[in-house]
Amino acid sequence: MQIRFSIIFIHRNNLHNIQNAVDSVISSMKANDEIIIVDNNSIDDSMIQLKKTKGMKIISNECNSGFGYAANQGMSIARGKYYLICNNDIKLFKNTLDLFEKYLEKDNSAGLIGPQMISPNGDYMNSYGYRNPSFFSQLDLIGRPIKNKAVKNFSQVGILRGACLAVNRGMVNDLGAYDEDFFFYHEETEWCVRINRSKKWKVMFAPEIKITHIGGASTEKLFINSRIEFFRSRLLFWKKIFPKYQVIFLYIFNFTKLLFDFSFYLMLTIFTLGLLKKFKRKMLDRIAVIAWLILGQPESWGLPNKCNKVSSS
Prior knowledge:
Elements: E1 5-11, H1 15-28, E2 34-40, H2 46-50, E3 56-61, H3 67-77, E4 82-86, E5 90-92, H4 96-106, E6 110-118, E7 128-129, E8 155-156, E9 159-160, E10 164-168, H5 169-175, H6 187-198, E11 202-213, H7 223-241, H8 244-271, H9 277-294
């Protein structure tokens, strides 16, 4: 039997989220779909409980291998014509997989398709970037005000948020999977850039397809660590897609911006006697990243329990 979708969950901790996610996928599946869970060394009992659910393939990593590497592990054993790569904090609606299939069949050049994400309280979340990342878009304070164009129909876009992506297996065979140099953050952005630059494949956004996404579930308790990891991935992203002279300018500009932000939020924290947590949090965020940069970007800083450097399989 030809497998239609291989639904691949990247998981680490939080039994409640992954159970809800799997249940929602099961309600959207057909007999010719399969579920694969790649567990990045969960330290709770989520995998003990999930292994009781029949019919799922499970890969258990002995350390936290990162998102892209784990997704590639899932795709390496997947049998589907298409992949659906998911965070463990999403929920699908009953017709989600059928809609993804409709659009993948509609445009054979669609390498990735992203849905409109909705928060648990019903708010629409930022799910795509209409333009491709550019030198100017990476300049904090200058790039951020650039307005994202509203997309109301199935359309090609620059980048997608990677919480739930429908993937054409043919594109992966042609251009390759996630770049495993990224541990967490920016791995889907680099993939989108690579796909759009190929001219053969496209990154598409389908606003008709909606999923629920909690967001930040895996890093909420590790905010400072996650900010360091974000900046590490951002630096790597710059090195991979921009000329060296632009990377140097981006580094200097954004480092200066970090210093300015730290001074600004430090003054606000002092002025408010530290009573407003949002100012204090932003101040700590900036000083942690600044310290990481000044100390030579130590590998041990960032998200915890990472595997030693793994090579592509």
